[in-house]
Amino acid sequence: DTGVSQDPRHKITKRGQNVTFRCDPISEHNRLYWYRQTLGQGPEFLTYFQNEAQLEKSRLLSDRFSAERPKGSFSTLEIQRTEQGDSAMYLCASSLGGRFGSYEQYFGPGTRLTVT
Amino acid sequence: LAKTTQPISMDSYEGQEVNITCSHNNIATNDYITWYQQFPSQGPRFIIQGYKTKVTNEVASLFIPADRKSSTLSLPRVSLSDTAVYYCLLTTRGSTLGRLYFGRGTQLTVWP
After folding, report:
1. Which of A51, A96, B23, B94 could be B5's S-S partner, Cβ–Cβ 3.0 to 4.6 Å?
2. pLDDT by residue (tens digit) across A82-108?
């Protein structure tokens, strides 16, 4: 399966701890996105990379959140000093860029974070 | 971003055709109508996209009237495995912005 993969699939952490998630996009995709989804809501955009450049960040991405995509391949999303409100599913997606934009994004299975 | 409005939930029985309507009164000239499907504990999956009239693929059909202020996703002969959340989005082709705006979607439940 050469789809988008995310690791870990589940993470339980105590409030105040730091966590890091990894996303491996589809290999030929140059765009990578992070979304957050809470129960009963649709995914909410967090940030977006084109190759290694972080081009867009949502206001949802507070100073405790940082994302990287070194060398334009995999990406990591780190949350520092986790809070209970950070509990959510964190979704990664990738797509091809180009003249038609990025309307068809391929999503990974997500990482479910529970902060106790 | 222009928003969409769709029913929170719908119920159907196996074998029936399901039509989910989405309203987008403020759709812009460059906006396309895009639908995603999400199963529990999975990420969303692109289903179909259209600009006007009708688009059909192996999964669904999308009907868009001339004024483009609404659209209808049609799922023929649904099965239990079509139980999912369906999201109607507006996407701008050629946009340098990466984000998709999902909203709450429509929870479709198919009963035996």
Report:
1. B23
2. 999 999 999 999 988 765 556 789 999
Segment holding B91, helix H or strand E = strand B84-92
- Which pLDDT tens digit goes with each residue over B9-20? 999 999 999 999
Within 8 A of B92 by CB-CB distance, chain A residues are: 101
Residue B97's pLDDT is 65
In sequence order, the 6+-apart residues with CB closer than 8 A to the CB of A66 are: A77, A78, A80
**Alpha-carbon gap: B91 to the closest alpha carbon of chain A (Å):** 6
Of the candidates B18, B91, B69, B103, which has an alpha carbon nearest to the alpha carbon of residue A43?
B103
Q: Is the pLDDT of residue A33 over 70?
A: yes
d(CA A91, CA A46) in angstroms, rounded, equals 10
> In one letter, which amino acid is A103?
Y
Secondary structure of residue A60 in the 3-state scheme: coil
At A71 the pLDDT is: 86
For B44-96, what is each residue's pLDDT tens digit? 999 999 999 899 999 999 999 999 999 999 999 999 999 999 999 998 766 65
CB within 8 Å: A45 and B99: yes
How much of chain B is in helix, strand and coil states, percent to nearest 5?
Answer: 5, 50, 50
Please, is B99 exposed, middle or buried when counting C-beta atoms within 10 Å of its C-beta (0-12, 13-18, 19+)? buried
Instruction: Count other Cβ atoms within 10 Å, centred on residue A29.
Output: 17
Asked if A45 lies within 8 A of B49 by C-beta distance, the reply is no
